[in-house]
Structures are given as structure tokens and as C-alpha cells.
Amino acid sequence: MSIQFVEDKHIQYVIEQESHRTFEYWLSEHLRMNGLYWGVTALITMKSLDENLNRQDVIDYILSCWDSKNGAFGSFPKHDAHILSTLSALQVLKIYDLELKMLSIQQKSSLVTFIKNLQLPNGSFQGDKFGEVDTRFVYTAISALSLLDELTPKIAQSASNFIMECFNFDGGFGLSPGAESHAAQVFVCVGTLAILDKLDLIRNETKLVNWLSERQVLPSGGFNGRPEKLPDVCYSWWVLSSLSILNKKHWVDLNKLEQFILSCQDLKEGGLSDRPDNQTDVYHTCFGITGLSLIDHKKYDFIEIDPVYCMPSEITKNFKKWKK
Ligand SMILES: [Zn+2]
């Protein structure tokens, strides 16, 4: 028997998170810009953004996180710029205005400089000037440059070379060359190659699709991030988006996955958690709902989400196609 999707409660849950009242909210301050993106994405997927969040308030908040010293966005006003908060900011601004008219020409050009300066000679990207390297930052930088329409053949070539160095013999991708395969890293690597139109670099696609399909844990039907781990709602997105990009969604049991996501709802207070009966948060709420959209957006009367950008397809279809 199928569990009901309690849409109105989820909308309320997300809005309350966004109106920053809870103590936990302040503790997770460093996630603020990402949290805003997760909330906006959950609401727009449920076709409930404009009536619940004031467009100008959201834009004003994002612009208040501009770090003029580094020329990009921090996660919170007066915080140092980081590539993660910069992508979240650009994604939300792009939802509101495809042309990003709320940013000055000067701001756009400092964003491009900020991102390009994070690339290292081996093609990888750092998250900020402190130098941590992770395939996640490669995806974030490439996606942000794509949103700004500023990709170049040189950046594309070196970034995709680095991504392929992180491909493992088991069929997955890790966060750096030789690092263990992990589903979230698979998404960022496959997503980067998709943006750069370089998916053909993956020579053993069957092995990759097998690795992704093996993430479905039975009998629950949820996906895990690595072998032997418990299923978690957020992998519904990381795994299914990767399979969608590769046109292989049918390799997993979508019905069982859907039931798992529905079983992670808080039916009383709204929101979704990583596993049934755990504490809800806006991150798992976002990726549970976008996961349901990938499974069957029409059934839930959701909008379609682009698996490459995790943004509405209605918006990404207008992005200029990158020519390698
Ligand atoms: Zn999770």
C-alpha cells in the first residue's frame, strides 16, 4: 500500500526553515546559502515557490552575501566567498532571472575570475583559497561557469581529464584520484562530463551503470552511497540523477525507491529525513522531493528537474549549449 505524499506539510516545513526561527537554524549558519537553494528547489519542484517566498527578499538576501574582497558569494553576509555558496547563489538567481540582471557587469566578471583562479594545473578545483580539493568543487565550478556562460575549451579539457583520473576500476568515481567510489562523487563527475559534453570519455559505461544500480538496497528499495552502507534519501537524487543522465533509470526498481522516499516523510510536521523516523532537515527534504520528480514528476504534479543541474528543466533548456 502506498503512503500519501503530504505536500502542504512539506511546503509549510520549508517556509518555516526559510523564515529562520529555530535555534538549529542558527547553528547551521554555514549552510545558509546552500539551505536557501535546497528550500527554493523543494518549493519550485512542488510548483509553490512564488506564493510562499518573496522573490525580492530572496534576491536581496543573496546580494547581501556578496563578498566584495574576493568577488563571489559567501554562505552568509560578511562570510568569505566559497565556490559552494557561489553556485547555490547563482542557481537561485538564475531561477529568478535567466539573464542575471540583478548582478552588475563588474560582479559577473569578478565571479568568473574568482572561479577560474580556483583551478589548479591538474584541472581540479579548490573550494576556496584554503586549498581543499574534491571532485565536488570541479562540478560546482563547471556548473557555475556554465550558468555564467563562461566555459572555455581549456578549462573543459583539463577539468574532464581530472574527472577521468578519479574513475575507479569498480566502476564508480571518488573525490580524488585513487579515492574510494562514492555515489555523490559519481553524480558530480557524471554531471561535470555532461555539462562539458564529454560523457564519451567514460569507456566502461556498463560498469558504471552496474555500480549505480547496486546502490539500491533491498528490501527497503532506498539507495546507499557505498557498498555495505544503510540507504539514505539523499542518494535517491545522487544515484537516480546519474542514471537519468546516462538514460538508465529503468535499471533500478523505481517503484520500490518511491516507496522508500515516501516512508521518510514526517507525516505530522512535514519534511523528509535520511531514513524513516529520523530527524528531518531541508537537505533531505529537497533531495527526496527532487528524487520523486525524477521518478515521475507528472504523478505528483511536480515540475521536471534537470538531472545535470538540479534545476527546473524549463530554465536549463534555455542555457546555451556548450560546444567542445
Ligand atoms: Zn543523506
Largest sheet: 2 strands, antiparallel
- Please state the structural category: mainly alpha
SSE order, one letter for each helix or strand = HHHHEEHHHHHHHHHEEH
The share of residues in extended strands comes to under 5%
Write down the CATH topology.
Glycosyltransferase
- Structure ligands: zinc ion
The average pLDDT score comes to 93
Q: Any low-confidence stretches, pLDDT <50, length ≥5?
A: none
How many independent structural domains? 1
Q: In order across it, which strands form the biggest sheet?
A: 1-2
Distance between the termini: 48 Å
Proportion of helical residues:
40-55%
CATH architecture: Alpha/alpha barrel
CATH top level assignment: Mainly Alpha
CA-based gyration radius: 19 Å
Describe the structure.
By secondary structure, this protein is mainly alpha-helical. The chain has one domain: Glycosyltransferase, CATH 1.50.10.20. The protein is 48% helix and 2% strand. The strands form 2 sheets. A two-stranded antiparallel ribbon has the order 1-2. β3 and β4 form a beta hairpin. α1 runs antiparallel to α3, α9 packs parallel to α11 and α11 runs parallel beside α13. Bound molecules: zinc ion.
Topology:
Elements: H1 7-18, H2 23-27, H3 32-45, H4 55-64, E1 66-67, E2 72-73, H5 83-96, H6 105-117, H7 135-147, H8 153-165, H9 183-195, H10 205-213, H11 234-245, H12 254-263, H13 282-296, E3 305-306, E4 311-312, H14 313-316
Antiparallel strand pairs: 1-2, 3-4
This protein binds zinc ion.
Family: Belongs to the protein prenyltransferase subunit beta family.
EC number: 2.5.1.60
GO molecular function: metal ion binding; Rab geranylgeranyltransferase activity
